[in-house]
Write a structure and sequence with these properties.
Layout: H1 2-22, E1 25-28, E2 36-41, E3 45-54, E4 57-59, E5 68-70, E6 73-77, E7 85-87, E8 90-92, E9 102-120, E10 123-125, E11 136-144, E12 149-155, H2 161-182
Antiparallel strand pairs: 1-12, 2-6, 2-9, 3-4, 3-5, 3-9, 6-7, 7-8, 9-10, 9-11, 11-12
Amino acid sequence: MRMIKFLGVIGLAVALVAVPALARDIVLTPPSGANDILIVAVEQWVIKEARWTKDGTPIGDIIKELVGPVKSSIDIGFGARFGTVKIDDREIRPARPQDANDILIVAEKEWVIKEAFWTRDGARIGDSIKELAGQRFLSIHVLSTTTKVEVKATVVPTLTEWGLIALAVLLAGGMGYMIYRRRPALRPAAP
């Protein structure tokens, strides 16, 4: 019984410490002159929902024009171009509520970013955004306010290969210890 409690405490500690450390938001501030962010995925992905929001709170219904498959890239405008979205070079300008100041785009399942660029009217500005390349995402949140423009993407927490190995060793060790405690014949005789 003590072993089960011990493993429970270890599991709770991992859940409370490791998962919040892995689940993080990447917040980026674009360079001056940029008015779009171009994101290219490794493979095709599907937009499950897209919503106008005001300071993170959804406003109105899902933007139906944006829901559907994305073959490779999405280009989201901000600042003067806020409300303009390009999906695979097809420009979409959905009707925007007056009080909306950001847009939230949620994928059907996690997807991997191949590369991302700041752009001005479709022309790339500088090198790729290194913080986004290779990351696994479920959602992109583009904020566009009068004082600051940020791109916020939620990273999906996953275990690395070494994390999986450590978890397997921990589970196997716990199982071995439980078997050792329950079978008195396996223990050496007391002197």
